[in-house]
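Re: duplicated header lines in exported structure tokens

Our pipeline writes sequence and tokens for each protein into one text file. With two proteins the header for the second block appears twice in some exports. Here is an export where it did not happen, for reference. First protein block:
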Amino acid sequence: MKTGTGSAIICAVAWSKSQFLAVPVPVFISPRLKEKTMRRARTSSLIALIVLHSLLGLGGCGGSPQQESAEPLAVYCFHGDTTCENCDRIEQWTHEAIEETFPEQLADGRIHWEVINFQQPGNEHYAEDYDIITSCIVLDPTPSDLGDDWTNLQQQVWEHATAEDREGMKRLIVDEVKSRLGH
């Protein structure tokens, strides 16, 4: 059964007899999501190839340390024109987690914290760029070049905010930021 109005062919990667094979897989998606889905599929395939390549010892960097990005990790707190108690919790608890755990990275610019109203004129593009529906936290390691490596924590932060789970929210934020910084 067709679930969307558009379709795309995504290449799955397989390993067979010492070579990589690209296998076309039909996927039905809406035209609006087609480009984003294709970028994510290519990124996932590339990551799978890199992991497989390094696991098989077929070259690479030989385990050298991860190079630090020249750009700061952007930690965005998005909200709309109207906020509620849960929206305020998301912003406050995330800011606390960042300030308490990463003061050095904030001070030296490795982390950039910013609160943005995505419904304000001129900011509407954020809703589409980061799949924003309501207040949320987005982590983007390359904010100057909207790639596929950003993370929208919308569902997770709302679960913690509505359950009034301050420590769980802070733990989520700290874990996500640490993984993005390579700690």
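Second protein block, exported in the same file:
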Amino acid sequence: MEMKDRYFLSVPLQWPGTGSARQKSSRHPSVLVHHGVNRRKKEFLAEVLNYDLVISTYALTYRDEDILDKVEWNGVVLDEAQNIKNSSTKQSQAVRRIQADYRIALTGTPVENRLSELIGR
């Protein structure tokens, strides 16, 4: 079986699309939205193998860390990364524990006070 590149995108709860279930198209990357009370946590490890991109929230990254850290991610993308600038929060620590070949942090919020806000400890 051919290995598939797999990416994880963590977004704020209000991000558009977190209400959608599963989206697949032949012309676009296959996307699994891992969100909500009906998310399929038990089936996740088998199901994730069929998708290129998994989208979830920061809160669920912490709550479901036990399954997310079992996936071999090629990359982790953090949208609105100011949500994890406090390195002592549980969701910030959970995001940093996810193993990936690389990480990208995106933010529209300027770094205000400290250079440490840019550093993923």
